[in-house]
Design a protein that fits this description.
The structure is a homodimer.
Chain A: E1 2-9, H1 13-24, H2 26-30, E2 34-43, E3 47-50, H3 57-62, E4 75-76, H4 81-87, E5 92-95, H5 107-116, E6 120-123, H6 126-142, E7 147-148, H7 151-154, H8 160-166, E8 172-178, H9 181-191, H10 196-205, H11 214-217, H12 220-233, E9 244-245, H13 253-261, E10 264-274, E11 280-290, E12 303-309, E13 313-319, H14 324-347
Parallel strand pairs in A: 1-2, 1-5, 5-6, 6-7, 9-11
Antiparallel strand pairs in A: 2-3, 3-4, 8-10, 8-12, 10-11, 12-13
EC number (chains A, B): 1.1.1.3
Family (chains A, B): Belongs to the homoserine dehydrogenase family.
GO molecular function, one term (chains A, B): homoserine dehydrogenase activity
């Protein structure tokens, strides 16, 4: 069985969830035909740890926040990201740090260092994909490694790979999505009679919404995902700033009630469309959808993407768009894609 | 570029739609890396036609119903299915005859003859898959050919392949679906105030429902699809007759109105579930779904399948479940799978 050595960059919720799965369920990976071994971890808080024969995940997962890898064999109080990414004996770099919506850093550099040193990269980080996706994909191809990022759009729910692998031979004319669970939850609660602020507070209490909900409510989170979908699936070459973006902050309880009475449901829709002249239009805006629209029935914090195709019409996939385990699964699906690439190269 | 020679078995709506795409859009296939050439057609009405250097599709598509292939070079007034399937120079047999829900014939024999003579088979026919799927898949593996049947469940909307390729590494605990467009349309119209018979008549007028709507309304169409999902995706070994089946014939307008008032929507649900003891429960029955259920919002004649997984929870795909072009696309997706197999074998 093939063993892939992983370097986990960032040791927050998502990479911890992946580490827990590797610790607890080797059989899950064995059934896929490979074994995963974590040989390096870096984190702003913990520092870095490199152990070529495999880190004892039970021990590091038990370390309380506030402690440090310093003092462990191969440990350092500093993250040493560049050194670890370039020089650790990892085959696959698992990038799950935070997203900067401005320049995608430090994730963009992490991805580059990995690719330049001949390592595959899997990431759940929207930033590098939305802002520098094509450049990084080209760099990966030049270096003979994979750059996979299924989790950047809808956590583990397949979207990018589904469109690429399951809709082959179809012309894709538009992609519409409910790509932010918080705003969808808030709109649903407004349909139940809550005001916008009240609904946001409730979402915060339930842990859906950030303390600062601006990116969710104002549409900038969806904007990054729309840029990814436009570039990956409709061969556009756009930046997030090219996506005309309006959030749900000005939707009132009256708007919602009036729409409902007319059989319509307000949703925050991210959309990419190929116009008749071949140009690409990309928007984020609240839309009052009729009941028969494939996205009208998507409720709660669920996310969904609807693909408009020439032969099939609308094909829609819905599922979770967040969550630490759900997002860790995106990394697993990316590692499966890396494995297919590696096995294909071995056969060839 | 690879050329695949096709034998079209049955020249009704679906295979005619495929032939039209091959005639009109060679670029669609070229972009997939192959060319399709039809070298044989058989049909109960037209007879059979074998032309090894490629049939002129424009001519045969222009032939009116009631005419015959007799008199054309390589033509015969008889379908000669066995001879054509075994001896024509086809690489891929495209089986799109009618489904017998009792024994799957004549499609089962068509598939066997093709596999035994070393040809790949793609089909949109529920019968052979629901009744003899595992036996035929084993036979195909033994003969080094592919047996592909994505269209047997939801026409071109990816379901079987999506579960197998996009949900790798997940434990699939249940599959629930809205797998019959007619009954879903009828239930929706009953929500709008029509009676059952009235809604069925409307569906017939619109061309959704057959003259005899028993298989749609009584659940036996869904039963075949549930058997396929159970065997393919949950490794069950069941026959359609093992699926406990109740249709929507006894759902009244009162039932529908009462449910709606309570926020529930009646849907005809096909379901396969792995019970705690490992056994498989398979049912078809009307269920009043709460608004938040992933299948509650599936409206009109749309079909959908919701996969219950361990790490992602529910992932749902919806799209068309019928239509000649939509079903022809299923055949294209199957031919893509054949091509991947062939190219993989070439590399190895």
């Amino acid at each position: 069985m093939t063993t892939y050595n992983l370097a986990l960059i960032g040791f927050g919720g998502v990479n911890r969830a992946l580490a827990e799965l590797i610790r607890d369920e080797p059989g899950r990976f064995a059934s896929l035909g490979f074994e995963l071994r974590v040989v390096a971890i870096t984190d702003l808080a913990f520092g870095s740890l490199v152990q070529g024969d495999g880190i004892d995940l039970a021990s590091v997962l038990a370390m309380p926040r506030g402690s440090s890898f310093e003092g462990l064999p191969g440990g350092s109080p500093d993250p040493r990201n560049e050194d670890v990414i370039r020089n650790s004996p990892a085959d696959v770099v698992v990038e799950a740090t935070f997203t900067s919506p401005i320049d995608g850093e430090p994730a963009v550099s992490h991805v580059k260092w990995a690719i330049e040193s001949g390592k595959h990269v899997v990431t759940t980080n929207k930033g590098p994909v939305a802002l520098r996706g094509q450049e990084l994909s080209t760099l990966a191809a030049e270096n003979g490694v994979r750059f996979e990022y299924e989790g950047a759009v809808m956590s583990g729910t397949p979207v990018i790979r589904l469109a690429q692998k399951m809709l082959g031979g179809l012309e894709l004319n538009a992609v519409q999505g409910i790509l932010n669970g918080t705003s969808n939850y808030v709109l649903g609660r407004m349909e139940a009679g809550l005001g916008l602020d009240e609904a946001i507070s409730e979402a915060q209490d339930l842990g859906f919404a950030e303390a600062d909900p601006t990116a969710d409510i104002g549409g900038s989170d969806v904007r990054l995902k729309v840029a990814i979908l436009a570039n990956e699936l409709l061969d556009a070459n756009i930046r997030p700033s090219d996506v005309e973006t309006t959030g749900i902050q000005d939707i009132t309880s009256d708007d919602v009630a009036q729409a409902l009475a007319g059989g319509l449901r307000w949703k925050l829709i991210g959309e990419v469309r190929r116009e008749d002249d071949g140009s690409i239009a990309a928007t984020v805006q609240p839309v009052a959808l009729p009941a028969g629209h494939p996205l009208a029935g998507i409720s709660g914090a669920t996310n969904a993407v609807s693909f408009t195709t020439d032969l099939l019409g609308a094909v829609t996939v819905s599922g979770p768009g967040a969550g630490r385990v759900e997002t860790a699964y995106a990394l697993i699906s990316d590692i499966i894609a890396v494995d297919e690439f590696v096995q294909g190269a071995v056969r060839a």
